[in-house]
């Protein structure tokens, strides 16, 4: 019997647990939930109150306390293994602070993995960062002005600026635009995302993504994606083409199957990597904790297109005001029920 690849062995061990139905909305044991809950609620309350207080300072104090706020904090860790490279871990944090009542519609962004720091398309793979990009030198903080336009009718354009944390501070500017088209009477949709960036230390960069797809049935969606990227420090045009099928397995789990080709140069195109990947995503606990298992099979040019396995295990936890809103709604419902007036009765 041939040697079983490490990714296959890990999947065999992890998938039964990841897909288990320990509870309707959670896969975690009770003792874990009891430890996570107070910490998660405390941080979520801080995210919610901070965003509303700052929004009230710049915008409308009355409206900021009741309007829906989409601020969130996401903390994640990737455990990566690559054949011939070994194991590595990549922590990440992303903080989006929304200010919806501010006249100019501002969003405060703090992120440790901005698009501009993710390297070339070949290095990105399924989203892994290079080792030298996981330090605090890649953390940026800035403000982004949000557009109120409907991207199905107009281009949704955003302008942002800020600094990258390093000494000396590294200022940056960004211009992003998005558009969504419904193609004819059928189910096909075309989406475009584009960003032009300038960092004082790295110079200019530009990236564009074109995504066309349609639902195949109630649970599967087909997508064709084209990515184009140029960075001044690399000074070459890169491209990637991929086809994906995204499948909803259950209310809390989904699968993605993809085949990707990555290359560079416009005058003399050259393919640098072919790879296949499968991504299993599981909502482990109440839309708060998520896990991803991503096995990949690469055929890179620098290995003479010989197959190379890779595996990523990713954990992400979200902190947002949605948790606080649900608690408020639950308390209100309990209070109404105690008075003999439920929301259903009032309707």
- Uncertain runs: 6-22, 128-136, 342-347
Q: If classified by CATH, what would the architecture be? A: Beta Barrel
Rg for CA atoms:
22 Å
Judged by helices, strands and strand pairing, the structural class is alpha+beta
How many helices does DSSP assign? 6
- Global outline: globular
Q: Tell me the number of structural domains.
A: 1
Predict the CATH topology: Porin
CATH top-level class = Mainly Beta
State mean pLDDT (0 to 100 scale): 80
Signal peptide: 1-23
Region (Disordered): 114-143
Keywords: Signal
Descriptive account of the structure:
The chain has one domain (6-346): monomeric porin ompg (Porin, Beta Barrel), CATH 2.40.160.40. The chain is 21% helix and 47% strand. By secondary structure, the protein is of the alpha+beta class. Residues 114-143 are annotated as: Disordered. Keywords: Signal. Residues 1-23 form the signal peptide.
Name the features.
single chain; 347 residues; alpha+beta; Porin; 14-stranded antiparallel barrel; 6 helices; 21% helix; globular; disordered C terminus; signal
SSE topology sketch:
Blueprint: H1 6-18, H2 30-58, H3 61-64, E1 72-82, E2 86-99, E3 106-111, H4 121-124, E4 140-145, E5 156-164, E6 170-182, E7 189-199, E8 203-215, E9 220-231, E10 237-250, E11 253-264, E12 270-285, E13 289-300, E14 308-320, H5 321-338, H6 343-346
Helix pairs in contact: 2-5
């Amino acid at each position: 019997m041939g040697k079983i690849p490490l990714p296959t062995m890990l999947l065999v061990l992890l998938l039964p647990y990841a897909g288990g139905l320990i509870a309707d909305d959670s896969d975690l044991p009770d003792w874990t939930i009891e430890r996570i809950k107070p910490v998660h609620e405390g941080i979520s309350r801080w995210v919610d109150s901070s965003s509303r207080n700052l929004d009230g300072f710049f915008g409308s104090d009355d409206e900021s306390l009741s309007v829906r706020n989409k601020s969130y904090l996401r903390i994640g860790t990737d455990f990566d293994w690559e054949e011939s490279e070994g194991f590595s871990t990549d922590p990440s944090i992303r903080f989006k602070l929304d200010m919806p009542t501010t006249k100019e519609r501002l969003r405060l962004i703090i992120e440790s993995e901005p698009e501009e720091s993710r390297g070339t398309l070949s290095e990105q793979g399924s989203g892994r960062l290079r080792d030298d990009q996981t330090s605090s030198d890649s953390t940026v903080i800035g403000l982004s002005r949000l557009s109120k336009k409907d991207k199905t009718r107009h281009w949704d354009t955003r302008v942002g600026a800020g600094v990258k944390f390093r000494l000396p501070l590294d200022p940056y500017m960004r211009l992003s635009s998005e558009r969504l088209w419904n193609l004819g009477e059928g189910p096909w949709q075309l989406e475009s995302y584009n960003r032009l960036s300038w960092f004082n230390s790295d110079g200019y960069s530009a990236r564009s993504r074109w995504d066309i797809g349609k639902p195949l049935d109630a649970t599967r969606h087909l997508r064709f994606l084209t990515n184009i990227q140029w960075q001044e420090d690399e000074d070459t045009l890169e491209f990637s083409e991929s086809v994906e099928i995204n499948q909803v397995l259950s209310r809390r789990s989904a699968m993605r199957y993809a085949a990707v080709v990555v290359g560079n140069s416009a005058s003399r195109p050259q393919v640098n990597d072919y790879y296949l990947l499968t991504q299993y995503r599981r909502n482990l606990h109440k839309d708060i904790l998520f896990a991803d298992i991503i096995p990949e099979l690469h055929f890179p040019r620098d290995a003479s297109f010989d197959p190379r396995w890779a595996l990523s295990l990713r954990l992400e936890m979200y902190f947002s005001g949605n948790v606080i809103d649900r608690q408020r709604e639950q308390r209100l419902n309990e209070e109404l029920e105690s008075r003999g007036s439920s929301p259903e009765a009032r309707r």
